Amino acid sequence: MRIRAAVAAVTGALALSALAVPAAQAAGNPLADVTVSNVVINSGKNIVVGASAQVTVSASYTVTHPASLSASSFISGPLLYRGTSITSPSEALIGGDDPGTCTASSSTVLKCTAKIQFRPAATGDYDDLANSQAGSWKVGSVALDNSGHTKWQNDLGAAKVQRLSKLTVNAAPEPVKKGKTVTVTGALTRANWDSNKYAGYTGQPVKLQFRKAGSSTYTTLKTVTTDSSGNLKTTTTATADGYFRYSFAGTTTTPAVSAAGDYVDVQ
Question: Cα(first)–Cα(last) distance of the chain, in Å?
Answer without folding.
Answer: 68
